[in-house]
Amino acid sequence: xxxxxxxxxxxxxxxxxxxxxxGDTDLNEQELLVLxxxxxxxxxxxxxxxxxxxxxxxxxxxxxLKNGCVIVTDTNxxxxxxxxxxxxxxxxxxxCYISDEDVALAAKEKGVTRAQMAVEKAARLNEPVxxxxxxAPTALIKIDELINKGELNPVLIIACPVGFxxxxxxxxxxxxxxxxxxxxxxxKGGSNVAASIINAMLYQAFPR
Length: 208
Description:
6 strands, Rossmann fold, alpha/beta
């Protein structure tokens, strides 16, 4: 009969397996911990090739979390996946505007997606912002538009929508900016990936 491990022991053993199977990478230690957390969440080693780190994003993300920032997600699922007790240690908060009445009304009036209007709402925040986008490529397209207009300057963009329509193209828009970003190239990603990236940085900012 297999030994039944405690939850923390299961996680520890899982990361040992990931480390043994992952092999060498060019990532620094902070980035490697993010990659391992994503693989732990998805059991998908393709992220070794697909997950791209631009402009020291993990270092910048950890610094922002230590100083206090707002994490803006594009789904309530991503929001739910973020470790709230640890999040609050640095005076951070996490929000998702996708279901807000004003966002839904504005999207209907303009004939655009709620994700786009949610980004516009987030652009009005007066605090440092980390975007964690795991579902809506239109959110990335709006982020790109507002950056180009000089109306948005996020601390970090996590760009990992999953799917087939405008997904690859929207991620490539983020790649061209000089803003710190973590991008899951190709079609893969998801709300769980976005949340796991945030958690990986939180666990480094505030060790458990």
